[in-house]
Design goal:
102 residues, mainly alpha
Length: 102
Amino acid sequence: MNQPTTSIPVQSSTTAQRVTAIDLVRALTMILMIFVNDLWSLSGIPAWLGHVERGVDGIGLSDVVFPAFLFIVGLSMPYAIEARKKKEIRPTSCLITSLCVR
């Protein structure tokens, strides 16, 4: 019996798999970080783009950007840790290298 063969793309072990959703939200967050950091130079912008004043209940776009960035960092950490484990890098050497080299 001749069965048709299907080709399944095989990724190299050196190529990291990316999670597209995390990459897209990270890119959007970085663009928003750049945008909201430049709001001080603009005039006539809608109030919902800026920070909400102290003592007022509410939230603006600028108030959401940094927490969104921290959320994406938290989502990315398990993937980064798993990649380090696959490379068989010891956690202590990662910490020492990160603190001393950078």
